[in-house]
């Protein structure tokens, strides 16, 4: 299931590129509106294990992101793990892969 992207470097050396967080589609999510979810784009040439979690501003776990390794993206639809839409407010995302951690904030608005 794992594949590695090999790149021909200077002097003919081969090396593999590692995981990188590229960008998030939007930082404001409006359930029921035009921005219904945040999509996190990653570069994962080795198809490493990736996890994405959402926490509220007090640090309490809210949800796991949906991971799509084929499209190299993670998604959060402003729902808690129980399927209910979360309250309006600020949320923290955490994406981990290959020992690295990427953090940021999202805002759920109505």
What does this structure look like?
This protein is mainly β and 110 residues long. The chain has strands spanning 6-8, 14-16, 20-24, 28-29, 38-43, 50-56, 61-64, 66-68, 73-76, 89-97, 100-108. The strands form 3 sheets. A 5-stranded mixed beta sheet has the order 4-11-10-6-7, with no helix packed on it. A 4-stranded antiparallel beta sheet has the order 3-5-9-8, with no helix packed on it. A hairpin with a 5-residue loop joins strand 1 (6-8) and strand 2. The protein is globular and about 40 Å long. It starts with 5 loop residues before the first strand and ends with a strand.
Number of strands: 11
Mean pLDDT: 85
Amount of helix: under 10%
Amino-to-carboxy terminus distance: 40 Å
CA radius of gyration = 16 Å
Low-confidence stretches: 1-16
Physical arrangement of strands within the biggest beta sheet: 4-11-10-6-7
* Category from helices, strands and their pairing: mainly beta
Write the element-wise H/E pattern from the N-terminal end onward: EEEEEEEEEEE
Strand-residue proportion? over 45%
Major β-sheet profile: 5 strands, mixed
Number of helices: 0
What is the general shape? globular
What descriptors fit this protein?
about 0% helix; about 110 residues
What's the SSE blueprint?
Elements: E1 6-8, E2 14-16, E3 20-24, E4 28-29, E5 38-43, E6 50-56, E7 61-64, E8 66-68, E9 73-76, E10 89-97, E11 100-108
Parallel strand pairs: 4-11
Antiparallel strand pairs: 1-2, 3-5, 5-9, 6-7, 6-10, 8-9, 10-11
Short description:
This protein is mostly beta strands and 110 residues long. The protein is 0% helix and 50% strand.
């Amino acid at each position: 299931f794992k594949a590695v992207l090999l790149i021909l470097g200077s002097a003919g050396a081969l090396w593999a590129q590692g995981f990188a967080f590229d960008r998030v589609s939007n930082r404001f999510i409006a359930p029921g509106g035009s921005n219904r979810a945040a999509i996190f784009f990653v570069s994962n040439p080795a198809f490493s294990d990736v996890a994405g979690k959402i926490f509220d501003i007090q640090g309490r776990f809210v949800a796991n992101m949906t991971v799509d390794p084929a499209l190299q993206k993670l998604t959060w639809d402003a729902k808690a793990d129980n399927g209910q839409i979360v309250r309006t407010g600020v949320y923290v995302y955490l994406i981990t892969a290959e020992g690295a951690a990427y953090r940021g904030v999202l805002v759920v608005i109505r």
